[in-house]
Design brief:
InterPro entries: HINT, Histidine_triad_CS, Histidine_triad_HIT, HIT-like, HIT-like_sf. Keywords: Hydrolase. It is an enzyme of class 3 (hydrolase). One of its GO terms (molecular function) is bis(5'-nucleosyl)-tetraphosphatase (asymmetrical) activity. This protein is of the alpha+beta class. The chain has a single domain, classed as HIT family, subunit A, CATH 3.30.428. Helices cover 30% and strands 18% of the residues. The protein has 3 helices and 5 strands. The chain has a 5-stranded antiparallel beta sheet, covered by helices on one side. The radius of gyration is 17 Å and the shape is globular. The two termini are 28 Å apart. The relative contact order is 0.16.
Length: 138
């Protein structure tokens, strides 16, 4: 399913050109045109899903299998020191294109890529209460 106004759907259909490094019937892997580091790629499911809440588990599993293959290829080619696998959901989480996609970002000692957060803590019994509520939902 393609969404008319989705830039990633247009890239997948070939309407907008991309630097594609891999493609099969379910996914397209492209170089990010505004990379956090050299070698930064995006994995795009060909079917349009707005975010992780919409993607089916089978497709999500296949996507992560592909991510492992792509990450190993990037490690071999770039000899990077590490790798971030990143996926944002919702504006507040940094999602800017509302077509599910995964970033694979090669990392190097001393690079300028920044990903982090201020550590919080739970109040008395709060973690256990939350753990139980999540467990019941699963």
């Amino acid at each position: 399913m393609k969404k008319q106004d989705c830039i990633f759907c247009k890239i997948i259909s070939g309407e907008i050109p991309s630097a594609t490094i891999y493609e099969n019937s379910k996914f397209k892997v492209i170089m990010d045109i505004a990379p956090a580091n050299k070698g930064h790629v995006l994995i795009l499911p060909k079917e349009h899903f707005d975010n992780i809440y919409d993607i089916d588990t089978a497709t999500a599993g296949q996507l992560f299998e592909l991510a492992a293959l792509v990450a190993r290829a990037l490690k071999t080619v770039l000899d990077c020191d590490g790798m971030n696998i990143l996926q944002n959901n919702g504006t507040v989480a940094g999602q800017t294109v509302f077509h599910f996609h995964m970033h694979i970002i090669p990392r190097y000692e001393g690079d300028t890529v920044s990903m982090g957060w201020k550590e919080l803590s739970y109040g008395d019994g709060e973690m256990e209460q939350l753990r139980e509520a999540i467990r019941k939902e699963l």
